[in-house]
Amino acid sequence: MAGNDKRRGGMRKSNKKGMVVGSGGQRRRGLRGKGPTPKAEDRVSHPAKKRADSRSKTEQQRAKRRAQQDAQPELVAGRNPVVECIRAGVPATGLYVAQGIDIDDRVTEAVREAKSRGISVVDVPRIELDRMTNNALHQGLALQVPQFSYAHPEDVLTAAGHSGMPPLIVALDGVTDPRNLGAVIRSAAAFGAHGVIVPQRRSAGITAVAWRTSAGTAAKLPVAKAVNLTRTLKDLKDAGLMVIGLDADADITSDELELATEPLVVVVGSEGRGLSRLVRETCDQTVSIPMAGGVESLNASVAAGVVLAEVARRRRRPDHQAPPNRNFH
Fold it and tell me: What is the CA radius of gyration of the chain?
């Protein structure tokens, strides 16, 4: 009986296991892939990440310095440059004259014209003028030019549409010399262009040097900045303009430029490499300038002047009829 009581009321052994601690699915999850390996520059401890961060920090510092420089007024230094700028009507806010300098005709003219135009004339110690011009060869004279106010590409197109003539716009692709920029602006104004467009990056801006080279025409002709030059050129094409690019390996020469009388954008490449690939692919046609043998290429501003002169000549022909006035937008 004792044995029966044990079987009925007591615990008996069983081969069936109870609840045990399991993997909780960790083993199965451990078999799953962890996705693609991150790029080296995205790994926190990788040397490439540190190099990428260093480059980013350096670029931010450069951008900050450029912004600070852009916010400061430009100074044209030297007697001849100052007189040329004042004669050309370059907008200026102050003329600085070093104390105790020898007075000649250029100094006399600069002071007289500055006063007549309402430009402040300030006498400063020579050592102070040295500091202001970063020890440039100022010869006792420096002219303060305010920060240039750029237009928007759409403003240039609108002004062209209101002119009653086929739009003619000049775009610069990577021209980094401010003297070339100033010379192109001067040629554009001389040959009837309605505005100039420069890229926001990797391009010269309207500095004191560009002001002087343009002979003041930068104040009379709209100069716009394009965030993305290729996209801006495509927008102009969508608005009905044709785009031609100056290139040594071109489709045609300027003698064959039948598009001259059409609504037109003339793109001038950089001093060294010419047109960039994307800009060249955006052009409807590329144009070269016929030259005598032995000469490889022309300066960017000279090449722009030659082609713009050809465009102006063709538009002056008696058989050319200007299209009805229309708004390009």
Answer: 34
